[in-house]
Give the backbone structure.
Amino acid sequence: MGTGKGEVKIRKMTEADLQSVKGIDKELAGPYRYVSWPVRVEAHWWVHRGMPSFVAEIEGEVVGFVLGDIRGTDYATDMCAWIDMMGVSPKHQCKGIGGMLVGAFCQECQKRKVKVKVVLIEDDKRLVKFWKSIGFQKGNLVNYEK
């Protein structure tokens, strides 16, 4: 798929992509979340590196990512895939790249015969709109706090 600045290539994530992924997250969330990520993203990679995580590239530059894993019995659910983190560089948003990344993740999970789930804050209207636009529906998990 083209974005006006080259073709978007979706491929499986490699260890060499870790720095780019952290850079995109820093662009999106700023320095506060990034402080916790240098360990978190590597930890996710080493624990789940056989799982379906993908990056999007334009002309050799990583511009987006989706990290996930497949696990079972969390929250009394069947074995399923969870999208843990994703992001698209702000200068490349609104071009369908996020949908392409999630599509690749879902396609890989279909091969493994597992459903895909994602958790988000319900008040985040932008994210809710995004997930609904690519076919996700509200599930049956509910969060309670005290």
Observations:
- The chain has one domain: 8-133.
- The chain has a mean pLDDT of 83.
- DSSP finds four helices and five strands in the chain.
